[in-house]
């Protein structure tokens, strides 16, 4: 069994490329006066969140890696290191990403980690770097367990995850409108991912894909960007702070405050952790379903249009 | 990549981009064209609570909003805006306007730049509409 296997730390090596592409996008926007927006505090917050994500990986990465190596030690399977195995690993890891990302929007415990990525009201390449500091605490490394147990080496799985993350960098832009039809049909693109960052009722809980948009089409979560409805970026209730600590931890604090409320049953306390964001024991808050239903009540003409099909 | 290279690159990259954005004039706070723009900004955060009254600050960077649920403010978050109700707010007059402390981890402190007469008037309006 291959124990000693190393791949380049592709995300760290991509940092200078990230910086260069941000400067190119900024130059384009400033010169052309279109293709997106930049704002100093927003961009600074996103970049600090990105640096914090790298730091948390250095500090806490051993938890996931230790877990994966423990699984690797017990699995009897080893698929080897051929190019075809790496490609298969990349595709399956992207399927893993789809589900982790979907959980990240539908389970509040996981959303608490992911929410900061959606907390910018802008959508530019710095938004891509607005990443979590608390991913380890979501335990979503469990979703990678089947890959290791099937015989993909942990180093290969993490390498593919890094490539996945790098792919997703360039799609965080308004500078690219639409790409050729075949590409939009198969791959996640700036257009598809803009929808994912939308706070419009139509665009909530859509387009979870990392690299291949086909997963959303397969699992019924694909919503195409509508020329008639510009994407409004940010959270349903936007933050009133740029403080990176508050950006990183606000939903965890929210969960804690909800769970310790007096007079709740233990089921309610659990539900505040595992139900979708916006769930409340007394129904006083709005989930994405509630928001969509309220929108349809005010705009019945939108029934059965993209983003509202399942509610029509 | 060794930390001795990664760390300076990240720090210089972040600082460089921030300075560049500021020099390009991209640090200006959002401004409301009129009361309707402030109303739209409020409804963007609280679509179910239509304002009954909107008072725009003289510099048009913030607005005091009255609703049937109580008072609130809309204020700039960089080039964008956000809004909050004033439930549990502690309001302090400062040299440049008002400081509002909220029991809200996502918006703990709102700093409003107001004219001296606005800074004297607004706390009373906020209290009156509670």
Topology, pairings included?
The complex is a heterodimer of chains A (312) and B (130).
Chain A lengths: L9 H23 L7 H35 L8 H24 L1 H7 L10 H4 L16 H5 L4 H16 L11 H6 L3 H7 L17 H6 L24 H16 L6 H9 L13 H11 L14
Chain B lengths: L2 H21 L11 H11 L7 E4 L6 E5 L2 E8 L2 E6 L4 E4 L3 E5 L7 E5 L2 H13 L2
Antiparallel strand pairs in B: 1-2, 2-3, 3-4, 5-6, 6-7
Describe this structure in words.
The complex is a heterodimer of chains A (312) and B (130). Chain A has 312 residues and is mostly helical. Chain A has helices at residues 10-32, 40-74, 83-106, 108-114, 125-128, 145-149, 154-169, 181-186, 190-196, 214-219, 244-259, 266-274, 288-298. In chain B, 38% of the residues are buried. In chain B, a hairpin with a 2-residue loop joins strand 2 and strand 3 (70-77). Chain B has helices spanning 3-23, 35-45, 116-128; strands at 53-56, 63-67, 70-77, 80-85, 90-93, 97-101, 109-113. The longest helix of chain B has 21 residues, at 3-23. The mean pLDDT of chain B is 95. The A-B interface holds A 9, 12-13, 15-16, 19, 22-23, 26, 30, 37-44, 47-48, 51, 54, 58, 121-122, 126, 232, 234, 237-242, 246, 250, 253-254, 294 and B 1, 3, 6, 9-11, 13-14, 17-18, 20-22, 24, 26-27, 44-45, 47-48, 75, 77-82, 84, 102, 104-110.
What would a concise description of this structure say?
Chain A is mostly helical and 312 residues long. Helix content of chain A is 54%, strand content 0%.
